[in-house]
Amino acid sequence: MRASERAYETLLDEIQSGVLLPGAVIGEVEQASRLGVSRTPMREAIGRLVADGLVRQQSPRVLVVSGFDTDDIRALFEARRALEETAARLAAGRGDREPFRALSGAFAVARPEEEDAVDGYYTLIGRFDGALDAAVDNVYLTQALRTIRTHLARARRLSRDNRARLRASAEEHALIAEAIAAGDADLAAHATHVHLHNALASILSSIEGSSEGSVQEGQQ
């Protein structure tokens, strides 16, 4: 893996997981030293994070992790709803349906609410996202979805410990995958709409009861 890619992946994971909170300063020299890379690949990695919208220029010489509050989450889900409902509808009408039959079965038996099963569950969601991208076969749509998913990880961690929600999410994904496998575009889009409605409600509810969810830039 190239040094710039390694630095990008490390910083991305730290931002998404909350190790680097909104307002945290991203200094090129300091981060390069910490991660053991030279300044050129670090500059490339930070540039990608700026393009992703995860890092912003606070002043001419200071870059910080971008804020992420309830308004950002609502805006994210507005875009996510439009893109994912469209993707589900398109996937039901084109591409290979067999992967979705297998995914439906995998979601049906998944138990993400069990101890130490959450990471495996998100790996399964990653498989679903990959199958959806392949079925849609539209580079413009899939690129937009990847941008959404980059930010989604920051929202997901706010409700990661909600075991009941994880169980419901698995059931909702099973229905979406089943609808796509059956070629039922209307059901696939509707099931996606319901899933996103429930996911947003859960995240906002978690924020209301968590001081972490109200972190703004400058508060760490």
Structure description:
With 220 residues, this protein is mainly alpha-helical. The protein has two domains: 3-65, Winged helix-like DNA-binding domain superfamily/Winged helix DNA-binding domain (Arc Repressor Mutant, subunit A), CATH 1.10.10; 70-208, Four Helix Bundle (Hemerythrin (Met), subunit A). 70% of the residues lie in helices and 4% in strands. Strands 1-2 form a two-stranded antiparallel ribbon. Strand 1 and strand 2 (62-65) form a beta hairpin. Mean pLDDT is 90; it is low at 212-220.
Short description:
The longest helix has 24 residues, at 70-93. This protein is mainly alpha-helical. The protein has helices spanning 3-17, 28-35, 39-52, 70-93, 98-109, 118-136, 139-156, 163-181, 185-208; strands at residues 55-59, 62-65.
What does the secondary structure layout of this molecule look like, with pairings?
Layout: H1 3-17, H2 28-35, H3 39-52, E1 55-59, E2 62-65, H4 70-93, H5 98-109, H6 118-136, H7 139-156, H8 163-181, H9 185-208
Antiparallel strand pairs: 1-2
Helix pairs in contact: 1-3, 2-3, 4-6, 4-7, 4-8, 4-9, 5-6, 5-8, 6-8, 8-9
How widely separated are the two ends?
31 Å
Helix- and strand-based class? mainly alpha
Q: List the secondary-structure elements in sequence, H or E.
A: HHHEEHHHHHH
* CATH architectural arrangement of the largest domain: Up-down Bundle
CATH superfamily of the largest domain: GntR ligand-binding domain-like
**Which fold name fills CATH's third level, the topology of the largest domain?**
Four Helix Bundle (Hemerythrin (Met), subunit A)
CATH class descriptor of the largest domain: Mainly Alpha
